[in-house]
Structure formats: C-alpha cells, structure tokens
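Quarterly update from the structural biology core.
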Amino acid sequence: MRNSEEISSPAREFLELAVREFVTLHTDGRGGLWWSSQKYFDDPGSLGYVSEIWSEAWPCLFKLLTSGGLDHLLHRRTTSTSPSLPLERPRRKRITKEMLERYRKARPWIEAHMPALLAQAWTRRTLFRAGRHPHPCGQWGLAWSSGWTSPHLARVEIGEDGVAFVLAEPHRTVTQTARPV
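Predicted structure, tokenized:
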C-alpha cells in the first residue's frame, strides 16, 4: 500500500491535516490509531468536519499503519501523501501594517473595558485571537477589526448585542456591531 494511487482521497486529506499539524495521529504500538486536535478545541464545526473525514479515512489509514506506510508518510515533512512531490511550506499568517495599527489602537480600549466585555460573553481569546486564514476570512478577534482605524470613527460603544463602532459618514451615521462568537 505504499503506492500513492492506492490512498483514498479522505485519507490524503486527513494526512494533509496531520502534516500541517492541525491534527495529531497517535498509535499505541498494539494496532490502535486515533487522532487529537488542540487547535480545534473550541471549534465544534471544525471538529465535526475532521471527524467526517476520519470516518471515511480510517480504513485506509489502518492499512497504512500495518504496512508501515503511515510512518514513512508522516516522518517526511511533505504537504502531500506522495513523497516524490516537492516540499511546500504551510502559509504563515499575513499580518499587514494596517492590521497591526488596528491592533495597537484597539488594545488600550479593550484593556480599559475588559470587565464589561467579559460580562458580555467575550473572552480574551475572542477579543485578541489571530485567525488561521488570511484576514478577513476565519475567526479574527475584535482587536483586528477594521473599525478601529476607520477615518469616520466617531466612538466605540458597548451595547446589549456587542461592541458597536459608530461611524459618522457624510449625510448618515453607520453602526457596525461585532458580537462575541
């Protein structure tokens, strides 16, 4: 089963997650094989997605484990299940100068209002986290929001449904609200 064509698509996808360290494969040396993921601990949607892939991939992964092919594939730091393909590095988070400026403006305000934010179901993680995907995709914290550096920003308020950025645009007032996830 060392031939990469014999590896199913779900198994390839799961191995890709393992190689990129989104999941960790474990074995007990007695034929047991399981996975864990600290990165998705608070993300049930992603855990469900990974579980679905696992439910289709495990038969192929067990065959790889017994044939020794799994060790070979995981010890090589490739981003594919075929070691003959060139080594690719996973993308790193791209934090731009503008994003850093937003964070620097947001942090003092957030720290000053921390008790009220925590009472409103925000956590330090949801306030400051940097997402896994390039901004604005993924789950980025309030500190990275574009409202902090808007030229029309009049004030920031803590409302009943979240943090509101009140923008005084020409001929109208716009309110953008960020809610805890």
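DSSP finds six helices and five strands in the chain.
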